[in-house]
Design brief:
The complex is a heterodimer of chains A (125) and B (273). Chain A has four helices and no strands. With 125 residues, chain A is mainly alpha-helical. Chain A starts with 5 loop residues before the first helix and ends with a helix. In chain A, 39% of the residues are buried. Chain B is mainly alpha-helical and 273 residues long. Chain B has one domain. Chain B is built from eleven helices and two strands, in the order H-H-H-H-H-H-E-E-H-H-H-H-H. In chain B, strand 1 and strand 2 form a beta hairpin. The longest helix of chain B is centred in the first third of the chain and has 26 residues. Classes of the chains: A mainly alpha (125), B mainly alpha (273). At the A-B interface, helix 1, helix 3 and helix 4 of A face helix 3, helix 4, helix 9 and helix 10 of B.
Amino acid sequence: MKPLTDERMDQLVGGILRLGVLSATAIVVAGSVFYLSGHLAEKPHYGVFLAEPLALRTVRGTLRSAAHLDSSGLIQLGLLALVATPVARVAFSILGFAAQRDFLYVAITLAVMAVLCYSLFGTNL
Amino acid sequence: MFLLVWLGSALAGFLGAITGLGGGVVIVPLLALGLHVDLRYAIGASLLSVIATSSGAAAAYVREGLTNIRIGMFLEVATTLGALAGAAVAVHVATGFVATVFGVVLLGAAAVSLRRPGDATTPGPLTGMARTFRLHGTLVQDGVAVAYNAQRTPGGFGLMFVAGMLSGLLGIGSGALKVIAMDNVMRLPFKVSTTTSNFMIGVTAAASAGVYLSRGYVVPGLAAPVVLGVLPGALAGARLLPRMHSRVLRLVFTGVIVILAVEMLLKGLTGSL
């Protein structure tokens, strides 16, 4: 197999980021349309902190709520896709550096991925 | 309110993308001071805006060959570890004091940044850690290719650890020290510093997103206009940056750093941000 050039890797990493951002945007837009049609008359009061309902604080709860086409659930799902984008970029870089046989950087990227997963999932999301 | 948040976020995305600082500098005060949104909601929204700015603009910068992916990955080891350390000590540290010190440091950095001459035209020597980890690259600008090698890598790595710690402690401002570490310490070309910082802040922000989401800091009704505003702003910034003069970029960067310094001093001295 021909080794992956740095330029090709740049293109692929850029493509992953674009894909992540575009799909997150599409979901947030869909959720916002639902949201605005239901809440337009309401006046939000974000001056008082009421933590989000528990259902939207976990991945599983968000998925369930989005599956029911609940507007807040859909937006939250889009936001999760957004958070997942840089994580996917790091994960892909591991494969990319491996294809380049750059094992020093495979190790470095694995270390970043480990810390990232630890802080993401250490909080029982 | 939806429209105002959207417009403010677009500006935040634009500034964040061209300076490598993320949009928090604009979004947190806009929401917390301007619109009286609870600070926790403001920080949650700002965190997502940073991820959106970073990923949106980086998609373009990476393809343009401005971002140095190796340098970014290498330094992310320091920032993610720093963020963990920052979150771990957060309960034992007076964040007001940290914010005040950070504000003063930023004012100093702004002064240094203004006095720096343009990018070096000949690369410094490639030695030590920079050689082991291959921290070098070539920046093509106006058809001229300029090679660069990272200098003083241990110092840059150390400052990146501090940058990660601060973002774990304060919630905002993680991009500022990243740019300063690459620009002032490692002597990378300014555009490489800002676009590589922009590339990195998404990962730093994603690392803390778990905590904020699970604590309920993210409200869909507020986060949606922020994210949808930040993206077009960031994409416009990313389109403009390759054609901008480094000198102009540096001035914008210094201006935003001064605003951030004032915000940090406000936060530290009055506890209002």
